[in-house]
Design brief:
Layout lengths: L1 H17 L3 E3 L11 E3 L1 H20 L4 E4 L7 H7 L1 H4 L1 E6 L6 E3 H9 L9 H10 L16 E4 L3 E3 L9 E3 L5 H5 L2 H8 L5 E10 L14 E11 L4 H19 L7 E5 L11 E9 L2 E12 L1 H10 L5 E3 L4 E3 L2 E8 H12 E6 L9 E6 L10 E5 L4 H15 L4 E3 L5 H11 L3 E5 L1 H4 L12 E6 L5 E5 L3 H10 L2
Parallel strand pairs: 3-9, 19-20, 19-21
Antiparallel strand pairs: 1-2, 4-5, 4-6, 7-8, 9-10, 10-16, 11-12, 12-13, 13-16, 14-15, 17-18, 21-22, 22-23
Helix pairs in contact: 2-11, 3-10, 5-6
The structure holds glycyl-adenosine-5'-phosphate.
Length: 479
């Protein structure tokens, strides 16, 4: 079973490279561990995800505004947020092979998720000994004492090296929103409740990155900080959990049965949170966190008020009262959602042979929702010359104005369909002699039409060239 699971991830990684979705980072220099580069189709897929999120969570809502804050912030931000003091994982070294591990991960492998919640380092050390935890690499059972390893990357700012110039790369986009709360209040003047959404890179020096793009040291986040009146946060917390789940299932087409909402136990909750849950997905390697939704109280704004001495209050004119707003935060990783969409879409389908003397065939297909798919349609002329080619190129140029479409005239039509199936292209548009109304046995009624083949059902229908743009718009938007 474990091998099958690993193979499923391996097959996906291999497809991603073969088809230009995701490449191992710095490959021509022997790579850089756990870094990945998004190729032509991967970056298109990523862009679609970010555009869909931005539209759903920011622009189509009257109560959420956008922000694009810096990656480099004054280090006092991270002092106030608690990241300097607390954003660390318990690190242990295997004394035999010197490999480093997260102590909580080693214990969770054996005892289950959340088993180290609320435990201090001394208790974690005892658990490692009592449960005879083995080094996953060399099988020795001899580890160093756990020690805190801060996950923030450091760098130097300016031309002069040395103390005083050190800055952190942000480990989350959220704090950029909190430190701009006053700017937004004073200059844009939204009324509470309202949210601020942001998409951007975050960096964490993870001890054990892995599982392809699931956990990396450089990744992108899409976060909303939703500011509300104290006392209303439970209602908004409930609202955002449902809103996020609905988006995944209804708009992105993620398989409902592979999603679950896991409420954090009291021991797991951060001291400032009065409710946190994870939307988890059944990845090929098991259930894992996709999306964190946290009710963060007024912790962050209060911390920044204390550290900066700048008031972070909201004046509610209707009620004639001042307060520091409470915050509900849905926080999602772009790369992690991309992995979910890839894993959810991936299928090796058996195609039953209609001729009993011939064996069944298989095809690899990415069943992306059309709105997510990197390539929306492929234009495939049946022959690569003359009027058929000319018409196919005209259609391609026309559709390019609105959609990311491809033109392909190489190889047999069957092989071209298979390539597009592997890219997850929902529609293949074939231009043939009927389209141009020339040649033997053409059906004059089909002149000016093309064949559109739907990826999942492989059903074909004739569509008039003049209706193609509208047809695609309608079908890409379908739920
Ligand atoms: N502001 C809250 C926050 O950052 P988090 O649970 O640490 O919360 C939120 O992260 C989301 O960001 C996760 O649910 C996951 O989707 C993504 N994420 C976190 N660490 C990641 C990593 N190392 N690699 C890829 N995605 C990551």
């Amino acid at each position: 079973m474990a091998k099958k699971v690993q193979d499923a991830l391996k097959d996906l990684v291999s497809l991603c490279k073969r088809r230009g979705f995701i490449f191992p980072g710095s490959e021509i220099y022997d790579g850089l561990a756990n870094t990945w580069d998004y190729g032509p189709y991967g970056c298109e897929l990523k862009r679609n995800i970010k555009d869909l999120w931005w539209k759903k969570f920011v622009t189509s809502r009257s109560d959420v505004l956008g922000l694009d804050s810096s990656i480099l912030l004054n280090p006092k931000v991270w002092q106030a947020s608690g990241h300097v003091g607390n954003f660390s994982d318990p690190l242990v070294d295997c004394k035999s092979c010197r490999e480093r591990f997260r102590a909580d991960h080693l214990l969770e492998e054996k005892l289950g998720e959340g088993c180290t919640m609320g435990k201090n380092f001394k208790e974690i050390a005892e658990m490692i000994v009592e449960n005879e935890i083995e080094c996953p690499k060399c099988k020795a059972k001899d580890f160093t004492e756990p020690r805190a390893f801060n996950l923030m990357f450091k760098t130097e700012m300016g031309a002069v090296e040395g103390a005083g110039n050190m800055v952190y790369l942000r480990p989350e986009t959220a704090q950029g929103i909190f430190i701009n709360f006053k700017n937004i209040m004073d200059n844009v003047r939204p009324k509470i409740p309202f949210g601020v959404g942001q998409i951007g890179k975050s960096f964490r020096n993870e001890i054990t990155p892995g599982n392809f793009i699931f956990r990396t040291r450089e990744f992108e986040q899409m976060e909303v900080e939703f500011f509300c009146e104290p006392g209303t946060e439970a209602e908004w917390y409930k609202y955002w959990k449902q809103f996020c789940m609905d988006w995944l299932v209804d708009d992105l087409g993620v398989t409902k049965e592979k999603l679950r909402l896991r409420e954090h136990t009291a021991e797991e909750l951060s001291h400032y949170s009065n409710g946190t849950s994870d939307i988890e997905y059944a990845f090929p390697f098991g259930w894992g966190e996709l999306w964190g939704i946290a009710s963060r109280t007024d912790y962050d704004l209060t911390q920044h008020q204390n550290e900066s001495k700048v008031k972070q209050e909201y004046f509610d004119a209707a009620q004639n009262k001042r307060y520091i707003p409470y915050v509900v935060e849905p926080s999602l990783g772009v790369d992690r959602l991309l992995l979910v969409l890839l894993a959810d879409a991936y299928e090796v389908e058996t195609l039953k042979s209609e001729d009993p003397s011939k064996p069944d065939d298989t095809r690899v297909v990415l069943r992306f929702h059309p709105a997510v798919a990197p390539v929306k349609a492929a234009i495939l002329p049946l022959v690569k010359k003359g009027k058929v080619k000319e018409e196919a190129q005209n259609i391609y140029k026309k559709l390019l104005n609105h959609f990311y479409v491809e033109y392909d005239e190489t190889q047999s039509i069957g092989k071209r369909y298979r390539r597009q199936d592997e890219l997850g292209t929902p529609y293949c548009i074939t231009v043939d002699f009927d389209t141009i109304g020339e040649g033997d046995d053409v059906n004059p009624e089909l002149k000016g039409t093309v064949t559109v083949r739907e990826r999942d059902s492989m059903k074909q229908e004739r569509v008039a060239i003049e209706d193609l743009e509208l047809w695609l718009f309608k079908n890409i938007a379908r739920s």
